[in-house]
């Protein structure tokens, strides 16, 4: 990987845009990155890291990237970092913009814009850049894949942590382990140790849980075996628990099966005894039943003998009833004829009661003749009825004509009154229209004058305000000028005082054994001392900053004064010299007149509309008057025709009504009279017919009773039974015959007669014997069922226990394996001879690789004197495997690195840092890093050692590498010509680049 160019805008301490040409710096092989503390040297490297990975290392990455923005940047300038580099033979350009808060385009406040990224590749064939991606994720994956290392590894390799390795050389094993863990990111191996310990505890918990479940099943089997099972005295997790439980379960199952066999044999014997007792009980029950049956039959025979006389009377009564049934039709016919005659006679009496007295003795024929005469007279009144209806309609029509005449008279009077005022109304409306038109013309003229007058008044008010602002601005300018002059004089005074005492300020930084920044001497016999009131650099800078702020304030106030004066001139040109109050009065009078004219003009449309409506009303009233006159003329002839027709109809109706109130009343009298006469004739004929039928029925009944053997019809009626009595008597006769037949059948049975000859059966004793046998059977069945359930439960629990044992087997194997690995990784296992934890072992291997790679450069830096070696020895109770010694070729002895001097410690730590870079690079897949940075520490070297270290660094150029040295040593600025200087200031830091000259 080779860096070509870096562009920074509003990033870190750089408020503006800065560029770094790494191509020019790399051409010299070595280049120096220097500047005062806090100027932003680290920010240059952060910008490279941010361009590649989208974040910066350590705590500087906070606030989702918002902290990367420079506090010196202008509000509208966006933070951006662009890096051009070559990696894996590809020329790429990466541009990243972190999220930032920009001012809102509308209103006040800020809004946050999202981060953006671009990745482009240079196409040599087309000699142009082509876009690859704008996705943060895709760009991050592409860069990580090309570089082959993470952000942390990149920071370790590109910016060599020489200071960390200096501490590393003097640290004990524990501190050295922490530092190596941070440099090589071996926390994942510590996580492996932790994970193995957690898995060991989890596996142990699972095994204990399985043993607890197995032991719980064993307790259940002990309960099921009713105490016949002896449990092992073991706890969950102890070896042999599963085998002991399985063996005890087998013994319990065997004992339960033996008990089941015994219970089954006992049940078979009790079943046979119970069956014999049930058969004996059935035989006794049958004899007792037959004996009861015979005794009941003898009792029923005696009761039949007692009721024999009543049975014979019932037979005779049934015989007479059968004879009377031949007379029943004649009796029913006579009763029906009698009932019909009574109903006809009652109807005739009711009908004759409604007739006039003149028809009381008339027969059916006379009543029918009178009814026909009334109907004929009713038919003659139909034409008179229609005439009466027509007369009613004529009266209503005549009344309607009178109402129309009165309504037309009212309409004519109203129309005449309105038309009499028409000319005056039309003249008034015409006058209103003309007045409104004049007001509209006047409003239009005044409207043209309003806008110029309002603009002139607004300009006059601005003129007055700008005049006041000009006076205020002029006063502020004078004050700002005075403050700037005073601040400048104060700054110059302090600067002169500081230059006078600059020797004391330089002497404050001297240290014994270190060269003077002015003369280079390492001895300082009489350094200058600060006197009271000494002005240091900070005081001078504060005075300068105060002067710069005052001068900026003065320039700002002068600019504001110029703006206000320009605005005053523009307002005066438009408003003139007329006072504002006078212009306001003119505007007020103009607005009043304009409002009056607008109000008058607003009535124009209403006046036109009223005139149009009045003309329409005039036409309607004239037409209404004409129509009313036509209707009055037509009503005169119509009224005469109605009067003549009414007179003729009244004469015709007077003759047809007679004594009745109306024709309809006379017709109703005739209709009722005809209906009553017709009903009387019908009922009279029905009474005569029913009387003849009753006489015929009496004659037929007498003949039927004589033929059936009865002396009178009344005797036959008495002998006749109704349906219910006949059924009841027949049921008694049938029941007697059935009972007699049943008794004879029972007394004739041979088994029943034989049982009656035997002694009385003892049913209670037989039942007691059967109950005892049944109870013994139930007891035996319960014992057998309990033994079967015991066997089934023991089998079920045994199967579950065996399955639990099989399930626990792989868990036990897993636990043994995990426990062995966990103790081995934790360094507590007997197999771990050096008692080294896994992380320590990995760190020891890394340290051995780094020491081997560092020795190559350390021998050259020390002229072949020193060699770094790795030691596995345990240091007291601390870690083992993290020892680091240096072999001194001059003495041939091996000693601890903590015994090296300051300069020796520096180039040893530098050798370790370079070795680390090689190891990490090889681990990352061998990606070549052509640009490296080395941190501070060169000030501790003497001139000869510094030359040797620079020779080693310069040798990196032979491998086509460029090395950037980050240092404050002034001697390096003379030795290294290619430099990148970071200069800080109040408005932010800037970069100054000098190439190889």
Detailed description of the structure:
The chain has 997 residues and is an alpha+beta fold. Strands 2-1-4-5-8-9 form a six-stranded antiparallel β-sheet. It has a six-stranded mixed β-sheet with strand order 10-14-15-3-16-17. A three-stranded antiparallel β-sheet has the order 11-12-13. Helix 8 crosses helix 19 (723-748). The two termini are 25 Å apart.
Characteristic terms for this protein:
997 residues; alpha+beta; 6-stranded antiparallel sheet; 25 helices; 68% helix; flat
Number of β-strand runs: 17
Strand order of the largest sheet: 2-1-4-5-8-9
User: Major sheet: size, sense and barrel closure?
Assistant: 6 strands, antiparallel
Strand content: 5-15%
By oligomeric state, this entry counts as: single chain
What's the average pLDDT?
77
Straight-line distance between termini: 25 Å
How large, in whole angstroms, is the Cα Rg?
69 Å
Q: Could you estimate the helical fraction of the residues in percent? A: 55-70%
Instruction: Give the overall shape.
Output: flat
Return residue spans where pLDDT drops below 50 for at least 5 consecutive residues: none
Q: Structural class, please?
A: alpha+beta
**Count of runs of 4 or more consecutive helical residues:** 25
């Amino acid at each position: 990987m080779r860096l070509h160019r870096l562009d920074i805008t509003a990033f870190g301490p750089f408020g503006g845009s800065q560029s770094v040409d790494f191509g020019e710096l790399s051409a010299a092989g070595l280049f120096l990155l220097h500047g005062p503390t806090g100027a932003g040297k680290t920010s240059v490297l952060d910008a490279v890291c941010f361009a590649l990975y989208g974040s910066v290392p350590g705590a500087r990455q906070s606030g989702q990237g918002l902290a990367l923005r420079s506090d010196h940047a202008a509000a509208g300038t966006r933070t951006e970092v662009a890096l051009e580099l070559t990696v894996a033979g590809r020329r790429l350009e990466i541009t990243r913009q972190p999220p930032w808060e920009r001012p809102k385009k509308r209103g006040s406040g800020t809004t946050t814009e999202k981060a953006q990224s671009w990745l482009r590749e240079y196409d040599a064939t087309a000699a142009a850049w082509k876009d690859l991606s704008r996705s943060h994720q895709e760009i991050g994956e592409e860069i990580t894949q090309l570089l082959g290392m993470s952000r942390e590894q990149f920071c370790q390799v590109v910016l060599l942590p020489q200071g960390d390795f200096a501490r590393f050389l003097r640290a004990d094993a524990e501190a050295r382990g922490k530092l190596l863990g941070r440099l090589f990111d071996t926390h994942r191996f510590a996580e492996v140790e932790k994970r193995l310990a957690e898995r060991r505890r989890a596996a142990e918990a699972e095994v204990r849980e399985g043993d607890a479940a197995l032991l719980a099943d064993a307790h259940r089997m002990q309960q099921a075996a009713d105490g016949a099972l002896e449990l092992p005295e073991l706890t969950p997790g102890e070896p042999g628990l599963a085998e002991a439980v399985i063996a005890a379960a087998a013994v319990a199952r065997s004992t339960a099966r033996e008990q089941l066999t015994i219970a089954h044999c006992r049940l078979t014997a009790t079943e046979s005894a119970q069956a014999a007792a049930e058969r004996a009980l059935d035989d006794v029950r049958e004899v007792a039943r037959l004996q009861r049956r015979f005794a009941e039959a003898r009792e029923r025979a005696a009761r039949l003998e007692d009721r024999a006389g009543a049975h014979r009377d019932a037979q005779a009564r049934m015989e007479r009833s059968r004879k009377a049934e031949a007379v029943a039709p004649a009796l029913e016919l006579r009763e029906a004829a009698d009932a019909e005659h009574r109903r006809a006679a009652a109807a005739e009496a009711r009908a004759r009661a409604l007739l006039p007295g003149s028809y009381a003795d008339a027969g059916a024929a006379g009543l029918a003749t009178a009814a026909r005469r009334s109907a004929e007279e009713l038919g003659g009144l139909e034409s008179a009825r229609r005439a009466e209806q027509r007369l009613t309609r004529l009266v209503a029509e005549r009344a309607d004509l009178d109402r129309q005449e009165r309504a037309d008279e009212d309409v004519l009077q109203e129309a005449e009154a309105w038309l009499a005022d028409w000319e005056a109304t039309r003249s008034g409306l015409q006058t209103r229209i003309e007045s409104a038109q004049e007001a509209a013309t006047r409003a239009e003229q005044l409207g043209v004058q309003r806008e110029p007058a309002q603009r002139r008044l607004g300009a006059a008010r601005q003129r007055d305000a700008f005049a006041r602002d000009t006076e205020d601005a002029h006063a502020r300018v004078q004050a700002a000028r005075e403050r700037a002059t005073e601040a400048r004089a104060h700054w110059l005074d302090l600067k002169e005082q500081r230059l006078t005492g600059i020797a004391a300020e330089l002497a404050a930084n001297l240290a014994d054994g270190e060269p003077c920044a002015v003369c280079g001497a390492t001895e300082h016999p009489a350094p200058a001392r600060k006197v009271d009131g000494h002005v240091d650099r900070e005081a001078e800078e504060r005075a300068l900053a105060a002067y710069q702020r005052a001068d900026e304030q003065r320039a700002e106030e002068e600019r504001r004064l110029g703006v206000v004066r320009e605005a005053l001139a523009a307002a005066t040109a438009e408003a003139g010299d007329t006072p504002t109050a006078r212009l306001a009065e003119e505007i007020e009078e103009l607005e009043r007149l304009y409002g009056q004219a607008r109000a008058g003009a607003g009535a124009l449309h209403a006046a036109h509309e009223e005139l149009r409506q009045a003309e329409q009303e005039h036409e309607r009233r004239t037409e209404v008057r004409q129509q009313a006159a036509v209707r009055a003329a037509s009503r005169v002839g119509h009224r005469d025709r109605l009067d003549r027709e009414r007179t003729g109809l009244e004469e015709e109706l007077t003759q047809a009504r007679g004594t009745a109130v109306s024709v309809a009343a006379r017709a109703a009298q005739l209709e009722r009279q005809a209906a009553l006469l017709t009903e009387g004739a019908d009922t009279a004929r029905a009474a005569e017919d029913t009387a003849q039928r009753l006489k015929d029925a009496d004659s037929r009944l007498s003949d039927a009773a004589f033929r059936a053997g009865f002396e009178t019809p009344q005797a036959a009626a008495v002998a006749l039974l109704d349906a219910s009595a006949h059924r009841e008597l027949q049921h008694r006769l049938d029941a007697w015959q059935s009972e007699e037949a049943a008794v004879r059948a029972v007394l004739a049975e041979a088994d029943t007669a034989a049982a009656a000859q035997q002694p009385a059966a003892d049913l209670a004793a037989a039942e007691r014997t059967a109950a005892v046998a049944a109870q013994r059977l139930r007891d035996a069945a319960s014992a057998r069922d309990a033994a079967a359930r015991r066997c089934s439960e023991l089998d079920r629990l045994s199967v579950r226990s065996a399955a639990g044992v099989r399930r626990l087997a792989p868990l036990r194997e897993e636990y043994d394996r995990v426990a062995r690995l966990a103790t081995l990784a934790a360094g507590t296992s007997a197999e771990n001879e050096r008692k080294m934890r896994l992380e320590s072992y990995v760190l020891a291997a890394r340290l051995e690789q780094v020491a081997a790679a560092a020795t190559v450069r350390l021998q050259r830096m020390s002229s072949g004197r020193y060699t770094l070696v790795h030691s596995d020895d345990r240091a007291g109770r601390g870690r083992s495997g993290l020892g680091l010694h240096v072999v001194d070729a001059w003495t041939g002895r091996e000693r601890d690195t903590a015994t090296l001097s300051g300069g020796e410690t520096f180039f040893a730590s530098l050798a370790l840092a370079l070795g680390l870079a090689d190891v990490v690079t090889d681990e990352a897949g061998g990606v070549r890093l052509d640009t490296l940075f080395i941190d501070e520490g060169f000030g501790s070297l003497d001139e000869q050692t510094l030359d040797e270290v620079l020779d080693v660094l310069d040798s990196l150029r032979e491998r086509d590498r460029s090395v950037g040295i980050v240092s404050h040593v002034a001697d390096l600025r003379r030795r290294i010509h290619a430099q990148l200087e970071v200069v800080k200031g109040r408005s932010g830091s800037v970069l100054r680049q000098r190439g190889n000259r």
